[in-house]
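Milestone 3.1: sequence recovery, worked example.
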């Protein structure tokens, strides 16, 4: 896919008059194009998901968590899930959003802030660098924990703890439910990016070509 969703969704955070269409034709994406792409091509969850992840719109983190939690609660009722704690599903949603690198705990928290901000969490071993100094080998090596990506990798014990479930109870049942939620988020984001893909075109001709794919 040519371009990045960042380029498109960043236009939601700036003034409209900076992105007016050129008088010579349709070679520029305007803020109206962005609104059209979000309003007609994406669902409410998809719009919030991409705006949080790609445009850094932290104001939508709390609504995003609430909306996904409601969706998952309806699904849980249909499947007759037994949940001992009422906030388990919400905590699973938050954990899944963190694992999908959409939100992370806020570094500096005040009384009026949401406890989360936009962005991925860094590996706790290499601090996001992807490499670390090995005293035993006396040289810089690739971080074994994140395999050089700099991204945080989650263990089942960490997942269970953040979801409020005892490690011994993190059975196949909870693993399937949690990983199903993670996969649902991945598919939702992938579908949203595919829907706005034509709006990443640099020219009108490329736009028409992408719309025809």
């Amino acid at each position: 896919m040519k371009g990045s969703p960042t380029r498109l969704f960043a236009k939601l955070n700036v003034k409209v008059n900076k992105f007016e269409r050129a008088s010579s034709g349709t070679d520029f994406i305007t803020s109206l194009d962005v609104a059209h792409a979000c309003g007609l091509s994406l669902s409410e969850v998809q719009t919030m998901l991409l705006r949080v992840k790609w445009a850094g719109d932290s104001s939508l983190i709390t609504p995003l968590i609430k909306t996904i939690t409601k969706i998952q609660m309806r699904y849980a009722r249909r499947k007759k899930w037994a949940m001992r704690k009422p906030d388990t599903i919400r905590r699973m949603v938050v954990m899944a959003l963190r694992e999908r690198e959409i939100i992370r705990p806020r570094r500096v928290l005040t009384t009026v802030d949401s406890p989360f901000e936009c962005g991925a969490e860094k590996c706790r071993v290499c601090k996001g660098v992807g490499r670390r100094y090995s005293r035993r080998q006396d040289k810089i090596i690739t971080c074994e924990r994140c395999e050089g990506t700099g991204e945080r990798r989650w263990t089942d014990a960490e997942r269970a703890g953040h979801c409020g479930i005892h490690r011994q109870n993190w059975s196949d049942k909870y693993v399937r439910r949690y990983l199903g939620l993670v996969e649902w988020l991945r598919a939702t984001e992938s579908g949203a990016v595919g829907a706005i893909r034509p709006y990443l075109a640099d020219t009108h001709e490329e736009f028409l070509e992408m719309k025809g794919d």
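The two ends are 12 Å apart (CA to CA). Helices lie at 5-9, 31-41, 44-55, 61-79, 88-99, 156-162, 172-196, 204-212.
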